[in-house]
Amino acid sequence: MEAAIGFAAGKIWQTLNSKGPMAKSAIAKATGLAPDVLDQGIGWLAREGKLTVVKAGRVEQLKLKG
Question: The whole model's pTM is what?
């Protein structure tokens, strides 16, 4: 399971790195990850301090730090 979550985190990171800040729903669509695995991958990146949340109007977007 840990490998699958790590893979998901990598896929999310690559997507955000290439496309910039995105809403969680857009990340799900771009990566094709299942909702539970998407949440776990986001948690992994957040735990490592690699994500930040930015507000774009009423929508929260995830963005890579740095």
Answer: 0.93
